[in-house]
Amino acid sequence: MWEHRALPRFGKRATPLSESEREAAAVDLDRIQRGGIPLGAEQRLKAIAAASSPVFSSDLSSKEYALALASGLTPIAQIMGSSVVQHGWQNYGWSSYGGGIQEMPSFATPWNLSRQRSFDRLHQEAQFAGADAVIGIEMAAKGFLGDPGNVEYVVFGTAVRESALPPRGEGGPRMCALSGQDVDKLRRIGAETIGVIGHTSVVCVALSMRANQMMGSWWGNQEMTEITRGVYAARHLAMDEVRRQAQQAGANDMVISTLTHDIHHHDYDRGGYTQHYFIVSMHVLGTAVRLGAHEPHPSPLGLPMMAINVGV
User: Fold this and answer.
1) What CATH topology corresponds to 22-89+97-290?
2) What is the pLDDT of residue 91?
């Protein structure tokens, strides 16, 4: 006879952890602290790599799956990378900011660390699965716990094996931040994805005396030109860094898939008036690409055409 057992309440466990479970949890924690992935995930992916015809899962749509096969890429496994980074306390000393625009690397560090570790873990999972590349990237990056400096970054993709073009010998699986459709288009112009490039830059904009006076009072429609300059400065810093990363990877082009920014307001009481500050964050993510890496495959892209049926 089937026996009904009440499920344990949320946050409580019916039985304590066994010694083997405690040891496994300690191993996983140590691996994650060193930038790795849990042991169970590694073992599962290695089993997929060893199987002659593995049962796979992926995050590809039916159209992406069909395009991948037509391009000579065989999906083998859905993979992921994740990292959560808490922003360490810093004394930013608002009173020392007299005005102008200053870069704030300490604000950018959690974003860059979280993104790097997420894609590193995605790369590890692709390697363990025996993949040649990763396509169909989906990602989410956001602040959490009410602090934009605390970062949660999760990225999913599909590990694929190359069946048409010679696999790249060095560097492991080719990483990208592109959909399956975009990867197919690049292959059709003879381009090869090399790796993910990305950077977050953060600048502080301390308003001048006149701009401070504009805050909170009616001066008509006025552009906050100092904040506009801060946005441009943050973009310049981020784009310079991803160009450097692309060149270092041996790319001759790059495809930017994400370019977003955030602006957060702070103020500080300064000798009888309020000094306003704005933290501008610019997030850039893209793919380093090598044009002319191979012959167009499976067939070159045709010239774009537009047809208009006027019913004649």
Assistant:
1) Translation Initiation Factor IF3 (3.30.110)
2) 52
